[in-house]
């Protein structure tokens, strides 16, 4: 039986006492129909058996990046609410992190069996993320370049736009 090249290489590196799933995870080889079988085989791996069945391929890649030191675990603190735990890679931009916050919040709402709707456009227009008193206003900056490290804690802060110039970059925290 001919195995894909990536599976052959991983079998050569694997130790005989530690079985590895023989799945090719390249984007060109994975389709929606294959996603369920890939997740099932990953859940059988002793290192990844703590994942939920609703895990996405991107989340698995991010968790592997944490183990390799290429990603961070951070917390988003919210006033009077539970914190949102996130896993982000070092190359993630602030804009991508905002999308991860939205996805994590949707997942939290779904787990609580709630039908809460959040207008994220309004949230990002009226609030900004703050790290150690510094506002994260530039959405295109990589998080590793602004000082976010492993186990960093960010918070939501309200801001208001200046009256003379209501551009996105002229935000002021109250």
From TrEMBL:
<protein>
    <recommendedName>
        <fullName>SNRNP25 ubiquitin-like domain-containing protein</fullName>
    </recommendedName>
</protein>
<feature type="domain" description="SNRNP25 ubiquitin-like">
    <location>
        <begin position="73"/>
        <end position="159"/>
    </location>
</feature>
<dbReference type="Pfam" id="PF18036">
    <property type="entry name" value="Ubiquitin_4"/>
</dbReference>
<feature type="region of interest" description="Disordered">
    <location>
        <begin position="1"/>
        <end position="35"/>
    </location>
</feature>
<dbReference type="InterPro" id="IPR029071">
    <property type="entry name" value="Ubiquitin-like_domsf"/>
</dbReference>
<dbReference type="InterPro" id="IPR040610">
    <property type="entry name" value="SNRNP25_ubiquitin"/>
</dbReference>
<dbReference type="GO" id="GO:0005681">
    <property type="term" value="C:spliceosomal complex"/>
</dbReference>
<dbReference type="InterPro" id="IPR039690">
    <property type="entry name" value="SNRNP25"/>
</dbReference>
<dbReference type="GO" id="GO:0000398">
    <property type="term" value="P:mRNA splicing, via spliceosome"/>
</dbReference>
């Amino acid at each position: 039986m001919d195995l894909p090249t990536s599976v052959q290489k991983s079998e050569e590196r694997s130790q005989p006492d530690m079985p590895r799933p023989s799945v090719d995870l390249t984007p060109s080889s994975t389709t929606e129909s294959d996603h369920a079988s890939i997740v099932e085989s990953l859940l059988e791996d002793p290192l990844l058996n703590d994942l939920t069945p609703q895990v996405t391929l991107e989340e698995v890649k991010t968790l592997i990046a944490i183990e390799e030191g290429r990603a961070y675990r951070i917390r988003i603190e919210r006033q009077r609410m539970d914190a949102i735990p996130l896993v982000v890679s070092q190359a993630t931009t602030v804009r991508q992190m905002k999308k991860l916050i939205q996805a994590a919040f949707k997942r939290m709402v779904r787990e609580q069996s709630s039908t809460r709707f959040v207008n994220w456009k309004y949230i990002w227009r009226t609030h900004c993320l703050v790290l150690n008193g510094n506002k994260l206003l530039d959405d295109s900056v990589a998080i590793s370049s602004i000082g976010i490290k492993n186990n960093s804690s960010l918070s939501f802060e309200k801001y208001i736009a200046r009256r003379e110039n209501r551009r996105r970059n002229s935000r002021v925290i109250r």
